[in-house]
Amino acid sequence: MAPITPAGSDVSSGPPPENDGHVTAAAERPRRPRLRGRLGTQHLAGWLFSTPFLLLFGTFMAFPIVASLLMSFTDFGLRNVTDPLAADFVGLDNYIELFGDETFRRALFNTTYFVVVGVPLTIGLGLVAAVLLNSGIDRFRTFFRVGFYTPVVTSIVAVAVVWRFVLEPRDGLIAGVAAEFGWTSPDFLSSPTLAMPSLIAMAVWRNLGFPMVLFLAGLQSIPTEVREASRIDGAGAVQEFRKVTVPLLRPTMLYVAVITTIGYLNVFEEPFVMTGGGPADSTLTTSLYMYREGFDFFHMGYASAMAYTLFVIVLAITLLQLRFLRDKTR
Amino acid sequence: MSRSARTVAAACTLPALTFAACGSDGGDELSAEDEQTLTVWAMGEEGKRLQDVADEFNQEYPSIQIDVTPVGWDQAHQKLVAAAAGGELPDMAQMGSTMMGEFIELGVLEPVDTSTFDQDDFFPAAWENNVVDGEVYGVPWYVDTRVLYYRTDLADEAGATHPPATWEELKELAIAYQENGSRFGISLPAGGEGAWQSLLPFLYSAGGTLVDDEGDPAFDSPEATKALEEYASYFSEGLTSTSVQPGQTVEQDFGSGDAPMFISGPWMVNNISEALPELEGKWAAVPLPADDAGSVSWVGGASLVTFTESRHKAAAQEFISFLTSPEKQADWYEISKSLPANMAAWEEEPLAGDPQLHVFEEQLATAGDVPAMPQWNEFAHEVDVAIERMANGGADAAQTAGELQAATEPLAE
């Protein structure tokens, strides 16, 4: 048995194994300082190389994460902006208040609505677009790919301007088309029942390019032999899609589902630019409520507690997805 | 002097360690005669134009250079709070009237020297807005106030002979407009951010207030219920749109005649002449319709503040005196079209000779203030929510007033 321990663990920790007896112990003694010196140098170099990352991570990620966790147990408010250490610890009060907060429950409900309807639509339409682009169209493929992906990289402000026009109840696109048929268009963004579906439609349109691009990559990695084999066995287009394409896309599907769900659980931009959470809180999402409490009203402690509650929800849902959607073919 | 010197010394020790403020020439406060650069944050349109005036100031006071940083109104609040937290505030800034309470609470504003600036020079509500517990924290720079805009051509068609002077006449005109073919009689916000701005004239004209003398909310008064009822009636009677559209502008409907009346501030005079030149001579801005307490609007605008950590307070005071002097205020009106807070400036040209400004002067003289409240944003949000509940949700005014009272009680101090 070699007495040299793997790099990274402390050489001096733990006694040497019994069966090596005094021989190794004696042989080891003079080697130890040299070994420690060498490992020390290696460690030093490693730490030095990691320093830029560690500094950035520590300053901009770890510190705020820990600080906001601590903040969620305090009554950090406007006064504490100039004097942060004067905030009082209130234990779990923020969390307890949160669960009695009707607006927060409303925000959670709205977020759930957005995710439950929005995520399957985004992934489903993304998949359909990818399949069509992969096999349905030969010419203009790049054109369509760019077309579907452009909204993903377009600024939300520009998107909001366009969608406001689309949804405008009197002179908007939908109202105009409806008028051709003699119908009147509802006032989408001012109606508590229609505002959220409108935002979901906008989010799906805006985001479906992302799963589409990933699915396209996934589709192109499915071997043609498998498809040919299924066709020889008499599979139709629908069967091929269900029994070959979808199972082989599973790893992509898992990634897309997790990323889209996390993104949608944190939904903020759509209601922020389109409705401001209204009418009557019908589009107030958890992130938007958090932003309002934190940055408009400066209830930083309360907003931090909300952030950590949302974090736990996101974590739990992601773990569930990883469990249920993982590749079962292996 | 000793107190402020100590504050400055304390303020300088910490940042000096991080190479921040407190230049190379020691940590003492400078006098106005010393060679120095004064940093100023100014918002919106003012921010873009202030540097020119600052250069003019520099010719009179060659030792004081002024460095103006324009900040957008949309990010002004965040930037100032972040700067307060990081100890990176400028020497002085323009501060919106509704932001005063919050920054007074933060303890970053230097009290104004009342022997230099005289309360009687300024519109009372503009001054009052900067006072907390008898201490004054800002000098009013420019003011705005809400008045009624209406389409005179359509009013003639509808048979109105004079501008609406009372609540009853306002509603009669709204109904007449609608009977004359307009889609709505008036445009009033049905909720959403800033809806309180249109409710406040109703509240003040009815004789109500936002907070009572003790600083507690006063929505449980009969006047407040009356104002809410009147405001809500325009929605329940279909005289105005119940739709809440963020970013909606009133000009379009005003121009098309779909909503020939609205309540807004002095900037609308320019907006209408620029966006709707074809309306020339077909509209007017008139004092708000009166109720029991008369025609009472409210005063917005901005003040000039100095921050406690500044070493250039003497220079800042000179600059503020310069900007708030009647002559410079009149010049500033020509440059930026913002209305002078100093009443004497209204006697100067071009203000004195402009008949269109008369309505604002009249309205400003009686206007109420928006009390400086640390939690104003939240307070205003509750009012917006109450308006939306009545206008869009059809809630009962008296009940809403009670709910609003309960919701705002923990916010006022």
Automatic annotation (TrEMBL), chain A:
Record bears the keyword Ion transport: no
Domain ABC transmembrane type-1, first and last residues per copy: 108-321
Region (Disordered): 1-30
Leader sequence residues: none
Transmembrane segments: 44-71, 113-134, 146-166, 194-217, 248-267, 297-320
A single BP term in Gene Ontology: transmembrane transport
Membrane topology: Multi-pass membrane protein
One matching Pfam family: BPD_transp_1
Name this protein carries in UniProt: Sugar ABC transporter permease
Taxon lineage: Bacteria, Bacillati, Actinomycetota, Actinomycetes, Jiangellales
TrEMBL record, chain B:
Molecular-function GO term, any one: maltose binding
Entry similarity comment: Belongs to the bacterial solute-binding protein 1 family.
SUPFAM superfamilies found in the cross-reference section: Periplasmic binding protein-like II
Species name: Phytoactinopolyspora halotolerans
UniProt-recorded name of the protein: Sugar ABC transporter substrate-binding protein
Gene Ontology annotations of biological process type: maltodextrin transmembrane transport; maltose transport
One GO cellular component term noted in the UniProt record for this chain: ATP-binding cassette (ABC) transporter complex, substrate-binding subunit-containing
PROSITE patterns for the chain: PROKAR_LIPOPROTEIN (PS51257)
Keyword terms: Signal, Transport
Keyword Signal: yes
Gene3D superfamilies referenced in this protein's UniProt entry, alphabetically: Periplasmic binding protein-like II
Signal peptide annotation: 1-20
